[in-house]
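stuck on this fold:
=====
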Amino acid sequence: RNYYGGNWASFSFSGLLSWIKENQQKTDLGDECDDWKKLILEGEEAIPLSRKDKTIQHVEDFCFGDQDSAEGVEEAGALPKLPVPGASGAKEVSSGSEKECPAAESPCPEPESREPEQAMGTEPAGATEGNGAGTTSESESSPGESTLELGQTEAAPSETPAQEPKKITYSQIVREGRRFNIDLVSKLLFSRGLLIDLLIKSNVSRYAEFKNATRILAFREGKVEQVPCSRADVFNSRQLTMVEKRMLMKFLTFCLDYEQHPEEYQDHESSTFAQFLQTRKLTPSLQHFILHSIAMVSETESRTLEGLQATKKFLQCLGRYGNTPFLFPLYGQGEIPQCFCRLCAVFGGIYCLRHPVRCLVVDKASGRCKAIVDHFGQRISASYFIVEDSYLSESTCTNVCYRAVLVSSSMILCFYHKLFASQVSILTVPPVELGKPAVCVIELCSSTMTCMKDTYLVHLTCPSTQTAREDLEPVVQKLFNVNSEKGKKAENEEVEKPRVLWAVYFNMRDSSGVEKNSYSGLPPNVYVCSGPDSALGNDCAVKQAETIFKEMFPTEEFCPPPPNPEDIIYDEDEIEPEESALSNSAETKPEPSAEESSGGGAAAVTKEE
């Protein structure tokens, strides 16, 4: 690929259009030259790798806005000589590949400028509440606990009279394309999840900023409602009666320490979580909120214990960085793999873009992989090989994650027009038919640095069996207006449906549950890394990375904190040769004795002389 991150990448609008065109082309790459086969020696065999990425299928894009002539329109500030114009996934780590800032009121900083103002482990930074304009102290920060920097981006628009919303045209989206950072995979970070803990522990968090999700929404009886989840939200809610508030608080308190009360759920362990909720004397609206917006589990498949565990995890994550359990990285989910790339590059890691690999070279005697042969006909030897699953047979995995990305004109739920426009919302839409999966909807505003001003980026995700458009289009039609130019006010709703300006649907392979032994014929020192899974969080990817690392290096710590630059001690032969030019004598000086070496000051004087 010519961008970092694989299927975890983020793109500008033009970069995504290039990605769409590439994946809509069904032509397979032929073997132009067989010269590489001459590099396979006697006693070796080759395992060919796929040259066409088939993890993405059925890509369809549509424009619903005013598609005036966009021919000849270029992205503002686009660099003409970039390999993938505007693709944020193609930001180079090396010098000279600086990311150009779009001409926005909130300029895009360099990676170095995104480091937290407070040092990690000192005064904690809090989450931006609603508008991302300020920070508050973390309420549950223990002494010495490191925290994350949450972004200070554009504030919510001031209270002004409602104005006619701006008409966004397709050419405007193309022209402002560098303000978009569109993720191929849609996820949120649990504030006490494995990825947040890993980012803090490894100090990779200094390369990124985050914004907390501000709203948990529910779709019930054709209407979108905000779900109260924290104690303050529950008691301030106007949609719940006083009796329902007491019921909800009693049940949530039980979920926090349900292990201490096994008698409450033991008789229902074989039942679904939805059936268990019916036994708790909860009203239908409370059952709906808990099942779809708090636990976020399947109505027909998830058992009682799974639902209780999910509810407890949700509650434990509340309050660490805000009133919801979730964080979102500014500039998109694609920033996370790039943050790890930056730290790896500091310590000598090398990344080669546009560098196809033809095959693995296996030693017949030992059965271990000893090298790879690349597109340029050179052998690269190593002790371990980690292969992305897109290089291997697609027949091994049948699970598919269905995705849709929309650019819309307004928020899904907004009672005050532009008054509180800076929101990050998550909505779970129940299955249209019993037995089908629910659809997870994540809506991002421009303060997340993922879309242009006056637009919203909406991600829809679900696992299913048809094509993405067939499964997700009914949900899009429920929440959005895709037909008329003006938003149509839905029946019994106080606000108009937001208008979809542009959309893309695609299927993404989910091989997270495939075991290594399912890939037949792989040597023991070759490890398979799957792409993104369909879950909301990132726990699966972190567990997989740690498992592979521990198999290769069982005695080493996984992602240890990096040393400070001033604490790094270099070997004698790594000192730059220019230091020797500082000597006035051309003769080689003898090595200092043990006594001289023990005196740091004397050694320093000798070097300066």
Observations:
- The longest strand covers residues 500-509.
- Residues 194 and 543 are 8 Å apart (CA to CA).
